[in-house]
Amino acid sequence: MSRPPAAAVSESLLAFWAEAGVDAALLETAVDRIAEGQRPLAPRSAPAAAPLRPPAAAAPTRRPHAIEAAREAARSCSDLVSLAAAIEAFEGCPIRFEGTASRAVFSRGPADAPVVVIGEAPGAEEDRAGHPFVGKAGRMLDRMLEAIGLTDRVFITNTVFWRPPGNRTPTPEEQLVCKPFVEQAIRLVRPRLLLLVGAPATRCMLDQTEGINRLHGRWFEWRTTEADLEVPALPTFHPAFLMRTPSAKSMAWSDLKTFAERLNRPSRG
Ligand code: URA
User: Is the pTM of this model over 0.85?
Assistant: First the structure.
């Protein structure tokens, strides 16, 4: 029997991966693992190893230059249009160059909204459309907001503005690099309240390490890094989690009622 041509084998393998949900290559160039496996093993009697050197200084876990650049770029923006342009031009967030993001996804909703909603990261549909929460999770979020009378009254954004490869959770480092832009968006909108949807948004905005099961429904005082603005913030479950876990919907509903109560309370002064 003749062997299938290499192209057909590759096509069939790609189809199999696509069906299994793989939609991202995590390296820019292919690694030939077969050739790697054929390299001769090092002889057992290898020469004595070089003397141990003191460990190199730990690689920085943060990108101070990128964070500083983001802060400078964000603070120079006096409106949301220039902030969107600054994000689009920003090259300090590594996800931007990892392969699956085709553009920056910043926000949707009115610039004078009383509420800012912060999610995790754009997914495939958001990357296509250029706006956050426009896929299945977005439709669920819209229903949640509608239930408390907030249709078209929220400004929605995410902790990072580029779609992470394979929709993985953004790392704390990636969130830190994007955070000055999120903070500036909140400064410009000046909402009365923040709604943080999901654990990654809660971790990023409130520096909390506890899980969302413990944090949801509790009020926190969010403040900018420079402490020039404070806004009450309520964490709740991410709509994608609620779609997978319908039993959590009653807790989310109770969080939303808590949120609406505070929003509808007449403000003093
Ligand atoms: N999930 C998020 O957290 N943000 C989006 O924009 C879409 C899905």
Answer: no
